Amino acid sequence: MSEKIDFAGINLFAPLTANQLEELAKITDYVECEEDCKLFSTGEAAGDVFVLLEGKVSIQVQLSSRPEKIDIVVLSQKGQLIGWSGLLGKTHYTASGICQGDTKLLQIDGSAFMKVLESDKEAGFTVLASIMQIVSNRLRNLQGVVLKTM
């Protein structure tokens, strides 16, 4: 990793201790992607999570009622979590993540991230509660997309 990882300004990591941030930096890579770069695909083994630094990422699903993929959400704000399935271990991504233009991200090993969160239960709980809110919002978005296609 050539670039120093900077977690400043990313609300998701605000509850973490200095030690946890140090450990998180060890399992995090800074990545730059071009337009149409696929971060992950539906059904692919999930292992990494991403945090958006700059750019846009479309989260897409394939509905059986439509030939084309449908955007659930387009993420464009610094600090947004992408690919949360990577935190669950031995599971698969439930959607695809596609970059919409040049994009900068943090790529984090999901199972190692969970271990960092376990190292301080209070801070870890706070971060996981934030992630649960993200999951809830994405499921609500998916429900809205599905209802619009009926």
List the SSEs and their pairings.
Elements: H1 18-26, E1 28-33, E2 38-40, E3 45-46, E4 48-54, E5 57-62, E6 69-75, E7 81-82, E8 91-92, E9 96-99, E10 103-109, H2 110-118, H3 121-149
Antiparallel strand pairs: 1-10, 2-9, 3-8, 4-7, 4-10, 5-6, 5-9
| Strand order of the biggest β-sheet | 1-10-4-7
The 3D shape can be described as globular
Sketch the topology as an H/E string, one letter per element: HEEEEEEEEEEHH
User: End-to-end span in angstroms?
Assistant: 46 Å
* Unreliable runs: none
Number of strands: 10
CATH architecture label: Sandwich
What radius of gyration results from the CA coordinates? 15 Å
* Residue fraction in strands: 25-35%
The residue fraction in helices comes out at 25-40%
CATH class: Mainly Beta
Total number of helices: 3
Can you summarize the main beta sheet? 4 strands, antiparallel
Q: Which structural class is indicated by helix and strand composition?
A: alpha+beta
Give the averaged pLDDT, no decimals.
89
CATH topology: Jelly Rolls
Q: Output the CATH homologous superfamily.
A: Jelly Rolls
The structural domain count equals 1
